[in-house]
């Protein structure tokens, strides 16, 4: 990061990457930029697309060493989350509507032959960003946005599947460097009296870091694969028995758009507590830290079955998963599966009880191994802690990073697992969806056995569901606008197979960009209350994001969506 003087900031921004000339950002006076620069302790920087070093001197035929760093880390999740100008899914660095972008070929980032014939443009990467370190930074940014009309966005790791952490012609609050972490064995939320063991994490802490810390403290934290997904839900393979990420948040510290730094928990600012536990990021303020419940270390029983792709076996596997859906949810299992793998895990059963509960899957795996089916594997393993299991899992399951993709998802309710007719309807729908989108994943992550405390705003459908299904369709750097639209449509049509047989319910963080009836799908009956809370804390609408609570679909911040 180069700490430029404010005058240079303005000059370089307009010379390097040209955006629409009439936007509010470019009409801000130099004096006002200088003031902001001072207010945020000099931590105001120029945004630049991740791959820009590869284009910088291309016309001179010179390669910049910074480009090889980009090429090596192009599809690496940590490299991307450490770079302000990078997003995990690359279309959110581009302007899909105009084609302005600065991308490499993710299938072969070392090949720049065609790439360098294109221009490097800012796309949806914010023109400026503040490396947020304290509440004053956020307060100054809200004040700046109020007086200049500049579009504000909040970016943490850039994992958002719906592009909510970037916007054209904007200034960004980057919370990635808030990395503090501490274990408090006797945490008492401010203004409350009850005590629980807890961990306080800065907004920028990622799960890899949190799990390693939990391991060192002999405790269990419940979360996702890579980021602290607290605001919108946070499903994990332990959620069935231990709850969603939002169920386990005890306190947030947040700067609301009115400039107040608030400590939010079940005893004070209860409305915000409810809103932040499921209402989504980027909506109610900038969270600087969260305190989450810590549980004792758990022993985990794990069953893994896998085989080489074979549609007949896929259907048999999914039939077993669906036939046993209710029993395994009640027995405390979570997991993930796709067309050729199933991983199940439980923190509540002994070794023998686990083996007995999983008999149908273990027998299936054993049969595949005995008959020497290609790639067949069966593993029945115990892990002494979640951290040791996580290290095993991250080596086997990797989500797409560094490409552009369309995701769509659906929550599958318990009642579809209840009788043989509905079960076979479900398996057929899954198979049909998988034909259109081969990367279908069955996430057995809903909190099916975890009722919650009535203070979360995620749709209640989470607690009556057994599967969370996702599909993904990708495209490469030089896809045409029509190609991209086709992939979005394909993902939507694949999930339509499940929409046809389920009520409107989907995970706000992993939904179709074009989710129909999204307010109902993400929040169910909680939406009206969430909207009142949004209006109370952000009356001037300084924050907004795609399909977020109170979102204004006509806002210019959405100009790059297709
Ligand atoms: C590879 C991959 C794996 C995933 N695995 C899981 C999983 O296992 N479980 C799960 O539940 N989800 C998972 N997700 C989805 C994930 O929950 C969302 O992408 C989530 O929004 C990421 O949060 P982030 O803040 O790091 O991302 P960002 O893209 O930086 O931000 C997401 C949203 O939150 C807002 N925001 C960011 N920081 C703040 C802040 N400090 N205060 C207020 N608002 C903020 C942004 O404005 C934006 O609206 C996964 C996503 C990817 C790409
Ligand atoms: C590339 O260009 C930048 C500025 O445009 C310059 O600072 C840098 O030294 C150049 N790199 C190389 C390898 O020439
Ligand atoms: C897209 O780029 C790749 C190289 O990255 C090239 O092989 C391919 O021909 C290009 N496709 C189109 C349609 O231009
Ligand atoms: C908000 O901005 C105005 C105009 O620049 C400035 O006068 C005022 O001091 C700022 N207030 C805060 C709380 O930063
Ligand atoms: C900001 O927008 C409001 C409402 O559109 C307008 O009245 C005001 O003049 C704008 N302020 C600036 C500095 O552009
Ligand atoms: C992080 O921890 C350090 C050292 O304990 C402390 O000085 C700092 O204020 C903390 N930062 C935040 C944002 O909480
Ligand atoms: C964690 O448990 C191990 C093994 O029981 C023990 O050696 C270690 O001291 C414990 N660590 C903490 C921080 O309690």
Automatic annotation (TrEMBL):
Query: Keywords of this protein's UniProt record, alphabetized?
Result: Oxidoreductase, Signal
Residues of the signal peptide: 1-15
Q: Where is the FAD-binding PCMH-type domain?
A: 122-297
Keyword Oxidoreductase among UniProt keywords: yes
Please give the Gene Ontology molecular function terms for this protein.
FAD binding; oxidoreductase activity
- Similarity comment text for this entry: Belongs to the oxygen-dependent FAD-linked oxidoreductase family.
Q: Which PANTHER family match?
A: FAD BINDING DOMAIN PROTEIN (AFU_ORTHOLOGUE AFUA_6G12070)-RELATED, GULONOLACTONE OXIDASE
**This protein's name:** FAD-binding PCMH-type domain-containing protein
Query: What organism does the record attribute this protein to?
Result: Piloderma croceum (strain F 1598)
């Amino acid at each position: 990061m180069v700490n430029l003087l404010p005058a240079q900031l303005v000059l370089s921004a307009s010379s390097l990457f040209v955006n629409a000339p009439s936007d509010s950002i470019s009409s801000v006076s130099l004096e006002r930029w200088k003031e902001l620069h001072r207010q945020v302790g000099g931590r105001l920087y120029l945004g630049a697309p991740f791959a820009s070093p590869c284009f910088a001197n291309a016309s001179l035929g010179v390669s910049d060493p910074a480009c090889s760093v980009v090429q090596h880390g192009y599809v690496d999740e940590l490299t991307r989350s450490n770079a302000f100008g990078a997003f995990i899914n690359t279309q959110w660095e581009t302007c899909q509507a105009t084609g302005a972008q600065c991308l490499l070929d993710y299938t072969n980032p070392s090949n720049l032959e065609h790439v360098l014939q294109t221009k490097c443009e800012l796309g949806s990467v914010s023109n400026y960003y503040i490396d947020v370190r304290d509440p004053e930074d956020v307060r100054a940014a809200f004040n700046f946005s109020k007086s200049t009309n500049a579009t504000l966005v909040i970016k943490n790791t850039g994992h958002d599947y719906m592009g909510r952490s970037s916007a054209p012609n904007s200034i960004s609050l980057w919370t990635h460097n808030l990395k503090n972490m501490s274990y408090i064995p006797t945490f008492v939320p401010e203004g409350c009296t009850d005590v629980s063991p807890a961990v306080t994490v800065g907004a920028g802490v990622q799960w890899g870091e949190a799990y390693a810390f939990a391991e060192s403290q002999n405790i269990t934290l419940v979360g996702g694969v890579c980021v602290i997904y607290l605001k919108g839900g946070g499903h994990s393979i332990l959620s069935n028995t231990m709850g969603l990420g939002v169920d386990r948040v005890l306190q947030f510290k947040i700067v609301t758009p009115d400039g107040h730094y608030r400590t939010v928990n079940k005893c004070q600012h209860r409305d915000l507590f409810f809103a932040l536990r499921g209402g989504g990021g980027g909506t109610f303020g900038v969270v600087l830290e969260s305190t989450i419940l810590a549980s004792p270390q758990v022993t985990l029983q794990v069953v893994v079955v896998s085989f080489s792709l074979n549609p007949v076996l896929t259907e048999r596997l999914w039939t077993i998963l669906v036939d046993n859906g209710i029993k395994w949810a009640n027995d405390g299992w979570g997991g993930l599966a796709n067309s050729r793998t199933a991983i199940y895990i439980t923190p509540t059963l002994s070794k023998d009880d686990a083996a007995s509960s999983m008999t149908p899957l273990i027998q299936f795996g054993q049969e595949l191994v005995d008959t020497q089916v290609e790639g067949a594997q069966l593993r029945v393993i115990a892990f002494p802690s979640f951290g040791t299991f996580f290290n095993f899992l991250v080596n086997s399951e990797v989500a797409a990073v560094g490409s552009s993709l369309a995701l769509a998802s659906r929550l599958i309710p318990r009642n579809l697992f209840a009788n043989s007719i509905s079960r076979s309807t479900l398996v057929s729908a899954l198979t049909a969806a998988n034909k259109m989108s081969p990367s279908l994943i069955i996430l057995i992550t809903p909190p099916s056995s975890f009722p919650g405390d009535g203070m979360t705003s995620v749709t209640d459908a989470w607690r009556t569901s057994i599967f969370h299904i996702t599909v993904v369709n990708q495209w490469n750097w030089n896809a045409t606008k029509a190609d991209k639209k086709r992939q979005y449509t394909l993902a939507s049509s694949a999930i339509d197979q499940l929409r046809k047989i389920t009520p409107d319910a989907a995970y706000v963080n992993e939904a179709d960009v074009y989710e129909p009836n999204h307010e109902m799908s993400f929040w169910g009956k909680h939406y009206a209350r969430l909207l009142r809370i949004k209006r109370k804390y952000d009356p001037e609408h300084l924050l907004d994001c795609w399909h977020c609570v109170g979102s204004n679909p006509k806002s210019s911040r959405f100009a790059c969506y297709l």
